[in-house]
Inverse folding.
């Protein structure tokens, strides 16, 4: 697998991984139905990640109202993610990339640290990446207002 981030305008790499709701998340299942925001985050229970996931919960209606499924992905195992979700009463289900395949496919795995960088990929209903942002430092994050502004451009 390469460590190259797929370009805006290209097809989003498909994947199927486990989520905290006990089901599998398959990216291609959203095709023709919903836009998707993939939000890679390094590790559950860390400061920036907690703030970010709680912000997604606070603004959950803003995303769903724009027909966007938010799919936060980390390398944590499902039991850890379930505990993280419950502790902070998150409304969004979290997805486990425990084998790191998805982070590698999107070019965001920090190999020497074995977790993903914080990164965002906005994918339209046709399965095409319309916006992406990979943080220079995993301890920084985009604010939801910026992400929602990108979503508004989908039309």
């Amino acid at each position: 697998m390469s460590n190259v981030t797929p370009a805006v305008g290209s097809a989003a790499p498909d994947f199927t991984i486990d989520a905290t709701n006990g089901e599998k998340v398959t990216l291609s299942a959203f095709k023709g139905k919903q836009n998707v925001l993939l939000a890679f985050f390094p590790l559950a229970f860390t400061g920036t990640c907690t703030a970010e996931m709680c912000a997604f919960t606070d603004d959950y209606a803003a995303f769903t109202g724009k027909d966007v499924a938010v799919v936060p992905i980390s390398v944590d195992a499902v039991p850890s993610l379930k505990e993280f979700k419950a502790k902070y009463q998150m409304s969004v289900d979290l997805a486990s990339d425990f084998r790191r395949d998805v982070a590698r496919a999107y070019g965001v795995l920090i190999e020497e640290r074995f977790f993903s960088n914080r990164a965002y990929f906005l994918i339209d209903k046709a399965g095409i990446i319309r916006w992406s942002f990979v943080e220079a430092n995993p301890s920084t994050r985009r604010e939801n207002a910026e992400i929602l502004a990108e979503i508004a451009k989908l039309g």
User: Anything to note?
Assistant: Residues 35-152 form a domain with the Glutaredoxin fold (CATH 3.40.30.10).
